[in-house]
Input
Amino acid sequence: MTLLALDTLAKAFGGVRAVDGVSFDVKAGEVHGLIGPNGAGKTTVINLVSGLLRPDGGKIRLEGLEIQALAPHRITACGIARTFQSIRLFPDLSARDNVLVGRHLLRHPSLLARLLGLPSAAAEQREAEEAAAELLRRVGLGGRQGERGGNLSYGEQRRVEIARALASAPKLLLLDEPTAGMNPVEVEAVAELIRKVASEGHAVLLVEHNVRLVMNVCHRITVLNFGRVIAEGSPAEVGAHPDVVAAYLGHAA
Ligand SMILES: Nc1ncnc2c1ncn2[C@@H]1O[C@H](COP(=O)(O)OP(=O)(O)OP(=O)(O)O)[C@@H](O)[C@H]1O
Ligand SMILES: [Mg+2]
Output
């Protein structure tokens, strides 16, 4: 079943056509890879889908509903969550509180009740804290809940970001280079986590430079170059595609 559909999406910055008529579908329960050389337009696609940028043209549909004109918090509420290419944790908050920030995005009323000291708020707060703890266990950080964000390793911080994104219970998770700067053991842990998230019914749109990871975890892959789709298919199909090989070799072929 198609969850997310991009239809001739376009975005230019000045004279640069960062995203130039991109169409592809992401299906529920699948990991969909989005790869391509530096500057291909991958992050711009993520920014368009998450509402950080408005497209110049084209449509973005989630379960058939057009979302390209919605504000980012509305898109979150529709069931899309993301992580960022550069880590955006609060260094002075604990891992658990960093996850709670993601949950509170959807829970303004309970946050307000808590600030006002309403009796129902304490129970809700406990429930939220338990949910955050459970999310941290899911990403393999059950023992690090109280640690300050700034004290976590790079790989741990990226996993807290994934937990925070999952806190809004998204249908679609957008991951922008989740393994950048990780060692091979951390990469394998994230690969396992991505597989698990998809098997639980979430769709994942995975932007990655780590081709081995993409080949290992993705059901389908779309390849961008200069803002356009140059190939799409299974990992085996994409890996054997001459245009993909040429793009990665800098058009040497
Ligand atoms: N806010 C912006 N203002 C101006 N140009 C931008 C902006 N964001 C992206 N670009 C340009 O758009 C193009 C696509 O950039 P984008 O960040 O989407 O690429 P990418 O595929 O994510 O690259 P990388 O693999 O290096 O992260 C590049 O030429 C980039 O310089
Ligand atoms: Mg990018």
